Amino acid sequence: MADAHEQSQEHAHKGSNRIQVSSSKKPMFFYVNLAKRLLAEQGEIHLSALGMAVSTMVSIAEILKKDGLAVETSLSTCMDLLGGEDGRRPVQKAKMEILLKKADNFDELIATEKERQGAEGAAAHQEEEDGEEDGAEAEEE
């Protein structure tokens, strides 16, 4: 029975469009790439951050907007009361949430980005092959 419960929770997590940003767990571009993937799959994403991670989240949202991939639909701020368990004093943390939706030309921009990455990868591969050939010629001499 536990397996079925775990599978349903995993499925619910996979379908989620919520990204909780941390300032210390993952690099910023991990979140940017995750946001791109979720925008492609879900059409909108919900970014959320507490305390020091708010500035990282704002940077992620601004990168997506600057690149023309997303449009901001809402922004909210509040103070969350955290902790207070085990006799500890509760702490207030700033919280911000941003809802972004996929830009109208998102699919075209992503396709162009993938083509560019493919061309760059092919060029790098060709340079490696050219370098190996040059090395083989030098050994023959």
Element layout with pairings:
Blueprint: H1 2-14, E1 18-21, H2 28-42, E2 44-50, H3 53-66, E3 70-82, E4 91-102, H4 106-140
Parallel strand pairs: 1-2
Antiparallel strand pairs: 2-4, 3-4
Helix pairs in contact: 2-3
What does this structure look like?
The chain is of the alpha+beta class and 141 residues long. Helix content is 55%, strand content 26%. It has four helices and four strands. It has a four-stranded mixed β-sheet. Helix 2 (28-42) links the parallel strand 1 (18-21) and strand 2. Helix 2 packs across helix 3. The termini are far apart.
Helical segment tally?
Answer: 4
As a percent range, the share of strand residues is 25-35%
Share of helix, binned: 40-55%
Strands, total number: 4
Order of secondary-structure elements: HEHEHEEH
Mean pLDDT across the residues is: 83
Structural class determined from secondary elements: alpha+beta
Supply Rg.
22 Å
Question: Alpha-carbon distance between the termini?
Answer: 70 Å
Q: Could you list the spans in which at least 5 consecutive residues all have pLDDT below 50?
A: 1-13
The strand line-up of the biggest sheet is 1-2-4-3
Main beta-sheet annotation: 4 strands, mixed
Global outline: elongated
